[in-house]
Design a protein that fits this description.
Elements (H helix, E strand, L loop, with lengths): L1 H25 L3 E6 L6 H12 L5 E7 L4 H7 L5 E5 L8 H7 L10 E5 L6 H4 L6 E7 L6 H4 L1 H5 L3 E5 L11 H11 L5 E3 L8 H16 L1
Parallel strand pairs: 1-4, 1-5, 2-3, 2-4, 5-6, 6-7
Length: 218
Amino acid sequence: MEIKVLHQIMDWNEDVSEEVKATLASHKICMINVMGSPGAGKTSMITSLIGKLKDRFRIGVIEGDIAGQVDADRIAELGIPTVQLNTDGACHIEAMSIQHILPCLPLEDLDLIFVENIGNLVCPAEFRIGESLRITLLSIPEGDDKVEKYPLMFTDTDCLVLNKYDMLPYFDFDEERVCANYQTVNPEAPLFRISSRTGNGLDELAGFIAQKAGSAVS
């Protein structure tokens, strides 16, 4: 019975996800779903990417959190249209929430929307939200076993970002293990190594996003 209910919820979410995607396509907007654990550096990466992409794209942000608006305030300080989405305990963002919140953004004036999903390596992977691109973050301090423990998150993504890469010398992190496991579950998707603190690797990631965004809205 529980499996049946979950299947119905997923089907319903997929329907709404397609509606969201159609709405965004009508405005020629590429929406990027940024996923990763709490503390992986999602907000810092988005902030850094805004700096790299703002001259080419008009950018908005949907900031997802269980509660509070600390990260949304940080993004808004950059002069970027930002909407806070609080899930009040839910471990992921659903397409219906995105559908309800899109009118709060100036869609006619945007090319690119970043959605920072709830910090979680399980639930967000299971729910499409109408995005054109999925980015999964794995930070060096989290450990090198996450691809094996949470395969769906790393299978159903368009790229993997190893964040806080400047901290590699200070942690017992087997990079080869991560790369091998990622290659096994998602052989066609690229892997980027970045540090939002130093800026290393951000140009390559920004270039990948710019190319995908251009393809998504063409």
